[in-house]
GNAT family N-acetyltransferase (Streptomyces alboniger), 153 residues
Amino acid sequence: MQIICRAYSHPHVIALTERLQAEYVHIYGAPDESPTEAEQFSPPNGAFAVGYENALPIAMGGWHFREDGRAELKRIYVTDRQRGKGHSRSILAWLEESAADAGAPTIVLETNQRHPAAIGLYRSHGYTEVPPFGYYADDPLSVYLGRQLRVPS
């Protein structure tokens, strides 16, 4: 898979986000309503990437700086047919490296108990519980994870 940094407004990001939101509707009955702005994922505020296989967009993810200086992961997604091939791990590694290069000391995320595969992915990468934050902080099904990033050389 080839990973390319893309603007959050890029057509491939929009198409993959629509697929992700449809998945959220299927799982939760509604799309993710947390505020997300394109400029959050533009340097120096953050980054967004799309993974391609045979020139087709099959994966995505982004991060942005929170007000406390931590990076927050958002919108990690792999299309159904491409799951189970390590693409989530590749996107996650790219995002972590990008955030570390930008100076983020730690990276955090919010997911949901209804996503055991996502929780397993993050835990296998060394993520542990962190205090709740953000839009879904009061949701009892939300899971908050984070980990230290390497210090850039």
Q: What stands out?
A: Residues 11 and 118 are 25 Å apart (CA to CA). The first strand starts at residue 2 and ends at 5. The two ends are 27 Å apart (CA to CA).
